Amino acid sequence: MSALPNGITKLFLHKAWKDSQFQHLTKVQQDAIPLILDGKDVMAESPTGTGKTLAYVLPIVEKIDPSNKNVQMVILAPSRELVMQILAVVEEWTEGSEISSVALIGGANIKRQIERLRTNPELIVGTPGRVMELIKAKRLKMHDVKTIVLDEGDQLLINEHLNVIDSIIKTTLRDRQIVMFSATLPEQTAKLGEKFMHDPVSISVNKTEKNVDHMYFVSERRDKPDILRRLVRGEIETALTFVRDIGNLNVLSQRLEYMNIKHSVLHSEATKRERVASIQKFRAGHDSVLLATDIAARGLDIDNLSHVIHFDLPDNATQYTHRSGRTGRMGAAGTVMSIVTASEARVLRKYARELGIELKEKELYRGEIIDKKMRAKTNNRRTKKKR
Predict the structure, then answer these.
(1) Can you give the pLDDT at residue 172?
(2) Which of 3, 102, 270, 321 lies 20 to 30 Å (CA to CA) from residue 174?
(3) Rounded (5°) CA angle 145-32-211
(4) Secondary structure E strands in 198-272
(5) What are phi and psi of 197, to 5 degrees?
(6) Which ranges of the chain have pLDDT less than 50?
(7) What pTM value is reported for the model?
């Protein structure tokens, strides 16, 4: 087991590292931790599942002064689910220390959050809207904030959040540190991020996930639900399945219900309680399929998820990367499947070329997944025998 970098001195962090039984730091952790410890502004692009959260949690926790009972570190994320996942990581790695943390998310009881702020947490994890709301209400004071982390930067630096992010950063001192992490970092996002930073150092980790297989099945649009049914009842036990929008999701949900396939749904119109229940049922293995829209599944982390299925084709290669990144996390094996029409297959192959991934066409034959070419060879042999 490798040791933590020299700059990590807090004993509880070393104990947590030992207890985690991680064998070594990932590439993004090796690159980012020393830079963040050194106070550099950092812009990091690294695939989902490569340990990005720990890459910034370790150094910012190291830099917290527990004797200063003011907010010193702020982590911003675009969704409630991602905020809670980040908070869980923070709490795991600060266990046994004097450092406390609080989640601030929209849709939750704001009075309770104000009460928790009165306990003087040193670290805040929150969604931009709620964080800004509490700043305006003078319940969250930012004058001692040393570092702001933008997690999933490409989702935070969009029109919906950009002005709020700008306002939050302006409430801190000019010498604050800005750190941005994302699975994909388009040029436009990088330029927007640079406006908030001082001479940022860029980190980019190889996007290709060698331990993840990418395949696709071509079908008529009306036959897509049946392909999904055959996959789930065949070689796949559970699958996170992406659908374009709530309308499509509801239609597919009705079809799966008719087919007696146990499934849960995850979309932005569901209540917090409904979303939590859906995720818990899927994680527990009660449901074979979790149907999700992109907005609802952003930042969703399900341990040991073996399969991701694109039931509806993503709008672009970036979206394909984010969806697919739910499997094959931290070096585990995973499979990404796309169910596409013939015209969608051409678009999907274009995404594969952009991303540098190997994409194989498959088909279902007698309940098994086989190569398209293999089926063609089998048919040719049968034809020759008949002759």
Answers:
(1) 95
(2) 102
(3) 130
(4) 201-204, 212-218, 239-242, 263-266
(5) -115, 165
(6) 209
(7) 0.70
